[in-house]
Amino acid sequence: MTAKRKEKLSQAVVYVKLKEGVLDPQGLTIKKALEKLGYQNVKEVRSGKFFEIVFDSNGSKPSAKFLNEISDKLLANPVIEKFEIEVVK
Amino acid sequence: MKFGVVIFPGSNCDYDAYKVIADVLKEKVEFLWHKETSLDNYDCIILPGGFSYGDYLRTGAIARFSPIMKSVIKFANRGGLVWGICNGFQILLETGLLPGSMLMNSHLRFVCKNIYIKVERNDLPYTQSCQVGQILKIPVAHKDGNYYISPKELLELERNNQVIFRYCDENGNITEASNPNGSLANIAGICNKEGNVIGLMPHPERASEKILGSDDGRNLFLSLVQHTNGASN
Question: Does domain B2-232 sit in CATH 3.40.50.970?
Answer without folding.
Answer: no
